[in-house]
Amino acid sequence: IADIDCGEGKPYASAEDGAAATSDVMTSLGFELDEYTLICSGGGVHLYVKLEEILIASAWEKLAAKFKNALLAQKLDIDISKTTDVALILRPVGTYNFKKSQPRPVSVIHHGSQVVEFERLDKILNAYAVNPELKMSYAVETSTTNIFAQMPADLPESNMSIFDANKYAHPKWQ
Is the N end or the C end of the chain the one with fewer CB atoms within 10 Å? Predict the structure, then answer.
């Protein structure tokens, strides 16, 4: 849901500082420690919240806009371009960040295992909906389609095995 830039010349001096600031903001918003996950992106911090259902893109965009507004209102310095980009996938754990000459691993800082319910998100985030149409409930805009049932049968069983499956690698990386 959010990308927090850390390091030299960035808003937070280190991933530890960015994670601490993010954790403070999430607590201020009313989230329990077990309701969010923080990932070291190999430079900065990525914030995730587990949702109870799969959202369609328009519902996710409304949620992301409210979340972005909430984080900014709490003075968390985030990369605003990434927070509401529905097509963006942040770096998965187990991969590397290659932005610097020395690749840096992507790892878990804190793993929250609880799922956050839509009613709870609405209550927390609706106060930060700048546009009144964002206040409409997005819980009714969820998808009941099992997207995984529509995937080709020859895909690797887990996302981690994709990194070892050369037939799925982009030609640039082979």
Answer: C
